[in-house]
User: Fold this.
Amino acid sequence: MTAPATEATQELPTGIAPRVPEARLEHVFERTADVTPEATAIEHEGRPTSYGDLDARANQLAHVLHDRGVRPGARVALFLERSPETYVALLGALKAGAVFVPIDPESPADRVAYVLEDADVDLVLTSDALSRTPLERPWLAVDAEAATIDRASTRRPDGRGPPGQDDPAAYVIYTSGSSGRPKGVEVAQSSITNFVAVVPTVYDVRPDDRVHQGMTISFDFSIEEIWPTWAVGATLVIGPNDERRLGADLADHLDQARVSVLYAVPTLLATIPRELPGLRTVLVGGEACPAEIVERWARPGRRMLNTYGPTEATVTATWCELVPGRPVTIGRPLPTYGVELLDPDDAGHRPVPAGEVGEIALAGPGVARGYVGMPEKTAEKFVAHPDGGATVYRTGDLGRWTADGMVEYLGRADAEVKVRGHRVDLGEIESVLLADPGVGSAVVALQEGDLAAYVVSDDEEQALATRLTDLTRDRLPAYMIPATLDVLDVLPTQASGKVDRSALPPPAGRRLVAATGPVVAPEGELEERIAAVWAEATGVPAAELSVEADFFDALGGHSLLAATTVTLMRERGVGGSPAVRDLYAHPTVRALAAHLATAGSGETTAAAARPGPIRHSGRRVATAGAAQAVLVYLLLLAVTLPLSWVYTTNDGTVSTAVLAQVLAAGAAAWLGVRWVLPVLLARPLAAGVRPGRYRLWGPTYLRLWTLDLVLRQAPLPVLAGSPFLAPYLRLLGARVGRRVHVAATEMNLPRLLHLDDDVAVGYGAVLHGWAVEDGWVVVGPVHLERRAVAGANSVLSPGSRVAERGMLAEQSALGRDEVVPADTTWAGSPPQEVATEDAALASMRAAGPLPGWRTRHLPGALAGLVGLELAAVLMVVPSVLVVWGALLAAGVLAGLAATLVAGPVFVLTVCAVVALGRRLVLPRTPVGIHPVRSALGLRKWVADALLAYSLAFTNTLYATLYTVPWLRLLGARVGRGAEVSTAAHLDPDLLTLGDQSFVADMASVGAATYAEGRMLLRPTRVGDRAFVGNAALVPSGVGTGDGSLVGVHTVPPPDGVPDDSSWLGSPAMHLPRRQDSGDWTDEDTVAPGRRRVRQRLAVEFVRATLPASLLGIGLYLYLLALSLVARGRDLLPVALGAPLIALAASIVIVAYVVAVKRHVAGVYRPRVAPLWDPFVRRTELVTGLYEAAAVPTLLGMLTGTPFLPVALRRFGARIGRRTWIATTYLTEFDLVEIGDDAAVGPGVSLQTHLFEDRVMKMSTVRVEPGATVGARSVVLYDATVGADVDLDRLSLLMKGEELGEGGRWRGIPARGVADEQTVELPRLEGAVR
Assistant:
């Protein structure tokens, strides 16, 4: 071969080293089976078969074949659909020493008979179903003979090579032939074993890959799928035989099967409507690859290869890596292969000069032996190279060398074309057409991707079309049937007399179909729209397309055209979101229209009616605010009364004894307000509140707000997950059945909460019996029926219900008055029914409920509860002793100064108690499914409560450089450079965070799952450089790959997140590209210098400890003022003044935080700053003080009052009049704007900044007048919630998104609610005022 073939090489991937070729093809598989017998060789519909088991089964079949007379060198046909038996048959034939001859099971009987005869097949391996095809040869149905095969030996057969043959044939594959019959290509063992030794290195197939096997085994592309996979010990995922072979259905299958390597023809890739992030490698071949396919499928983190090679050169001869923006070529030869460009008009087959177009010729050990029974054809195509005498194969393809040594493919030199990856000899089709006596001459051309037939005939056109339809379907495979038929007077010819294909007219005739019967016109808009799409897709004129014509039989449709048609319907908005299976099941326009109309009306879930908006006067709001101020005062009175009594009794003096009394009184007040007050007030406050709607700021609202305020003091965070929560909820007024497990704490109306037997509620779930919408308070029961499950972070709205054995999955929202039907699982926001769920969870739910708590568990439960309450008190004691010691030893000022030290002491004490307590209670979290009501369940509850203490008491320790060592102390495996914020519901010893990973605020990573009295505990890994966004939820056992992104409010795919992929939403959708975060140096983002690290450690030490010191100062000043007021006074004036003193101390703390914000961060403006920028440290310091000092001291109590907007304005937020704000999740205050009469629900995050690629981006968030933002929603920066918009609960408004005036939106991300109505809700007498 000449220099251009080998003058340059492409860089091969690292990984599997090239191998010495095996002597026989099956030895490749056997070597892997010996090394890794337990590895999965094939997987079919989720059922794996190991290399060892497949090897043993193939050995058994080989012995059976020998008993049936199959000897080395015999030819055995494989006539099977894809199934595990196919691969048993393939290996069994090879192990018996036979040459395998694969036949497409969808081939017409005439073609099957020809191949069996032409190849002189000795035996046909088939299935019981396919054996009904007339085979005219001995056959064995592999499935029907299973019992016979079972009895055979599993020992590997000996003596497989035919006597006297050093290099026997491995297989014969039939390709299209110009004579009207296919031709068989015989490939030697040395050719195919050489190929399998070379390509794993080039393709970088790895042992952990999962490779899709979707090609029919009669197409040698299947060899490329199968054998490199087995060579490295990877898993071959058997493709389906139904509608999932193409389009969206194929995409779903590839996702579900976790396929990482896909071989496909470009046409097949074009039918897949969405990105497949799990694919690590995509290899295309079989036809020319358009640049558009490369632009769509090639991306960083994925390798896309273009392969070229005819069957005559053993599968593939050349390859190249495809990169967007570069010309698509077929590359350079594989190692051991050679390429030459010959002059097609030169009888001596000499090479063309450099840069000239020539016929591509292939050389090397991959060149096949020739065509079976066709010596003349073999001599024509397999020729000796003029320079060296080596045999080369003339492909008939034209090409040209590029300047960088690549071969540019320029099409066919003869009448052979590629159709959907299949080589088609146009002459074979023409021969079939000429077999009709009414056809005088015929020619077939490829026109715009479809085969077009042109004939000359005097017969009546309709009758001719009918005959040719029958003839082609009897003689040709589906992909070779022409799409159209034109009858011409004469065929255009060249001067030589040959047909001039370039002069053929565009197809203008009818489809080559049996289009008989009348044309039935469409009725109704849906039929008209479907018919229009079908006409466009099939090329049938709309006037000739009958709505009763079968898509496949009458319109010539095939699987590719079906996928294309369904995709076109979706794009045009016809019939909602039809699936390919819909078209297969309803193959006429009329039937499909009827199905889609019925399915659409039956599956649409309308949102609950929206109450007509109401606006309130300033006077009404002020009146309610005054009442709320009194209620806050009364709560503070209850808290401070024991302290007032102590100081009054001791006449305001300070001593060791008095301070001991103060500590005891403080503990008593804390325990009394937590445990007793909610029980005393919950039922009276909720009495008489019935489902319906009430005016905001009215008496009923004030009762509900007071109840919510009281419940926030209750010990629900400690009781969550314990045996005591159910009885405590009953005391509060809830109806709670037996064996109920609740790990959540947000329940704002216990009286309307119904939890039936064996219910499970996951971490962070929200069970809201009332909510504010459009100026109304909407009230409704929340009901979970027997054995129902509400997943972690799910949100249930007023009036919602989960029916018996139903499940609302993690991070899913059930809207007002919505119902999850019995025995179904719904997931997402908005929720939709899902057919499958996590296998482990499904097994938990299918197993049925476990028994309740036993008497033997009670002592341990009581010990755990007492221990937790004592732990909370003990966490404060060392700090108190520090301050008291200074006060008693050196006076008031020394005590005040000591509060600065008390902050760090408190943080260290909390960490010590939590870490030691967790190590004592649950030193190791066991993986698996365990009973909740067990000793392990008790220990898990206590461990969870201790971690909740850590988040509540040392919140600002998180999102600092101290977080990583803290998590490591708890047992987590955290890589270098990881950043972790306030991640919740962790099982630290089951958590792995990779190097430079990033877990943002309020994310839940690895949370346990509860159902049927069981808990599911699994390890979770966040990959290197992976990002988990704010409020995202990564369930236990779901890993995120290296470089991946799980966005805000997102639940990742259940099978995990592939490397370098990005996901957003619930359910998650793949994001093909991330927004660029700018060019920042590593020092700014991941690799700071030592000076920056020291500076950050110092600032974050202050951030972690100053809030506790600030609270300590406030408490110290309060007690000091109270002692002064108590001197010489009776209890009554002291007690009445104590709440005001406490309120004043709280205001001082808030004012201090405001001052720090103004002087440290200044006025927030839109900006971008990398993680290690000093500005980020300053703003994070302010955020920490706000969240850990200002909010718990005062602002948390003011949610839902007119006073919170006043306070937030002091921080810089622009907030209008009469607003109702029930959240404190604001950070960059100056960037927040909330209009008049707006309502912002509990847990809402107005997210003015995000960290993206370790870069902080901040900008404005606007909630315009009259808008409602529902509970737990997130509005990202640069977004606007328009005037009078209702953004429902658990929704996400994307960056830069603007919701126009009015309308309803819901979902993650938000989408419009169709058919939105404003109607009257039930009103109760006297309730609306």
